[in-house]
Design brief:
The structure is a single chain. Strands 13-12-10-5-2-1-15-14 form an 8-stranded parallel beta sheet, with helices on one face. It has a 5-stranded antiparallel beta sheet with strand order 16-17-18-22-20. With 564 residues, it is α/β, with parallel strands linked by helices. It has 17 helices and 22 strands. It is 27% helix and 16% strand. A hairpin with a 4-residue loop joins strand 17 and strand 18.
């Protein structure tokens, strides 16, 4: 494999609105990010991904962009962004932006011009279609609920939106629009951005006829993803995008892709793939309900283990994938993937170890490094997320009580990942001196950065050691390019794998159960690289008779004898 500059890097996602507020308006800002660059660097981070900071009405938290060339005043100024780029560079860190080019805001100049002249050139930047007998052109349901079609005022036309009605989809079949987008992307690259996380990109290819599909709900509509899954040719658009932008700058690109067709992974992340990498969402799909969040199953350990193992085995045939436990669109991983007894510092360390040492690019989401958890929500009005409110109403319409619907939202809401970062045990967790835009998780007194800084056994200091191991001169090669080989798959509670190259064999083994487990080692142990046992009992990490004992929620990283 041709080695790339980003192969051995570790990334950190910042959701700016919830990171750190320095001016007391309750909203995180660029100045807050700049002030914490040393903290991020100490964690061992190379690449920082910023969720959208562009000018926006914030109907969908900045994923509705009104001006691709402007910083939202809530976050700061372009001068402060330039300062962030400069300060990150001084610390050998790279900044990647969020790129939202499937849709824009209805406040964007292009859409306003389209509305002003529905027959003009800007209308073709979007999908304006005539209705059928006054009804929408087709029966698609948007990702956020309701029809994908919204009337164009004063006409018999509708415009298409796969997300909120304030997020009209852009017409990628229009070459003039594509050139506008490419010009914008290259402008940011010239400014010094190292690449992009690319939002909802698989959706850019549409069937321009927008045929009806068989309804999949009582509303008589079909999920808009059915149209996406039925159409071919997105690869041509993605190659055009790459060749006109990213390729020129050797950019790092990580795409949000949910619907790769069988056999297409190589085209997306292979040596000459459309992107550097894509996120592995295979585990996250395990808690998706057929009808909504209200019928979403709990994550079963064995199913989770099988799913992530299969994803790792498939991915390594083609390239690198980006590994996540959580992000701004997901609940907290500790609360989602661990049983209740494991939602502890030890459990957080265990889950982090499994993820960070997988083959691929580790992405750590803000607060993950201190073991942040889902919040406790008491009322639907406490939420900000548009998707959560939609799912609450779906649950209520399905017959769930208010308490049951709130419990469902509490487990699954995107706002769980968006509660402010817990910096200390002062008011508002040290996030703001004002009123936070979203409630602070009440457990900030127990879980916060400041208390963990001075605790050698904390989740934070463990994560620092974990990332340091991955990037160390001794083990970087095997953790970057080494093969992934699952082991002990026939056990009830063990998640384990080897990372192997020509020189080394590393065993990563974790016990997700409540009882101690004994494992007979296949290869003699040479030394313990990392363990989440408390220091008082670290000396007990020896392997007499090559039998490894793992307590509840214990993880160990062992270097084993290597025979080729």
């Amino acid at each position: 494999m041709k080695q790339k500059w980003w192969h051995d890097k570790v990334a950190y996602q910042i959701y700016p609105k919830s990171f750190l507020d320095t001016n007391g308006d309750g909203i995180g800002d660029l100045r807050g990010i700049i002030s914490k660059l040393d903290y991020i660097k100490k964690l061992g981070i190379d690449i920082i991904w910023l969720s959208p900071i562009y000018k926006s009405p914030f109907v969908d938290q900045g994923y509705d962009i009104a001006d691709y060339y402007a910083i939202a005043e809530e976050f700061g100024t372009m001068e402060e962004f330039d300062e962030l780029l400069s300060e990150a560079k001084k610390r050998d860190m790279y900044i990647i932006m969020d790129l939202v080019i499937n849709h824009c805001s209805d406040q964007h100049e292009w859409f306003q011009k389209a509305l002003a002249d529905p027959e003009g050139e800007y209308a073709d930047y979007f999908y304006f279609r005539k209705g059928k007998n006054g009804n929408p052109p087709s029966n698609y349901r948007s990702y956020f609920g309701g029809s994908c079609w919204e009337p164009v005022p004063g006409t018999d036309k509708f415009y298409f939106h796969m997300f909120a009605k304030e997020q009209p989809d852009l017409n990628w079949e229009n070459p003039k629009l594509r050139q506008e987008l490419y010009r914008m992307i290259n402008w940011w690259m010239e400014k010094g951005v190292a690449g992009f996380r690319i939002d909802a990109i698989i959706n850019i290819k549409k069937n321009p006829d927008f045929p009806d599909f068989e309804p999949d709900g009582k509303d008589g509509m079909a999920g808009c993803q059915k149209m996406v899954e039925s159409v071919d040719g997105v690869g041509d658009l993605l190659e055009d995008l790459k060749k006109n932008t990213f390729q020129k700058y050797d950019a790092f690109t990580v795409a949000e892709v949910f619907s790769i067709k069988p056999g297409e992974l190589e085209q997306f992340i292979g040596e000459d793939g459309h992107f550097s990498t894509i996120f592995d969402f295979s585990a996250h799909s395990l808690s998706e309900g057929d009808l909504g969040w209200y019928d979403a199953p709990d994550v079963d350990f064995k199913k989770w283990r099988e799913t992530v193992i299969n994803a790792q085995l498939e991915i390594q045939k083609h390239g690198f994938e980006a590994n996540i436990i959580e992000n701004h669109d997901e609940p907290r991983g500790v609360s989602r993937f661990l049983p209740e007894y494991a939602r502890t510092p030890r459990g957080a360390k265990m889950l982090g170890t499994i993820s960070v040492l997988f083959r691929g690019i580790p992405f750590i989401f803000q607060g993950q490094e201190i073991g942040m958890q889902n919040a406790v929500w008491n009322d639907i009005d406490e939420y900000d997320d548009i998707s959560t409110k939609d799912q609450y109403h779906i649950a209520r319409e399905a017959g769930l009580s208010n308490e049951e619907a709130l419990e469902v939202c509490g487990r699954m809401s995107r706002d769980n990942g968006r509660t402010p970062v817990q910096w200390n045990d002062n008011e508002n967790a040290g996030f703001t001196t004002g009123t936070p835009w979203l409630k602070v998780n009440p457990n900030y007194k127990e879980i916060n950065v400041e208390s963990q800084e001075n605790d050698a056994e904390s989740v934070l200091n463990y994560y620092r050691g974990l990332v340091a191991v991955r990037k160390s001169s001794e083990y970087k090669e095997v953790f970057t390019y080494g093969s992934y080989i699952p082991v002990y798959e026939n056990t009830q509670t063990i998640m384990a794998y080897y990372r192997v190259n020509a020189d080394k064999r590393i065993l990563v083994a974790a016990n997700f159960g409540q009882d101690e487990i004994e494992l007979r080692l296949e290869y003699p142990a040479k030394n313990v690289i990392l363990s989440n046992r408390e220091s008082a009992s670290k000396e007990r990490v020896n392997i007499p008779g090559q039998v490894l004992k793992l307590g509840s929620c214990e993880v160990i990283v062992l270097e084993c004898e290597h025979t080729v």
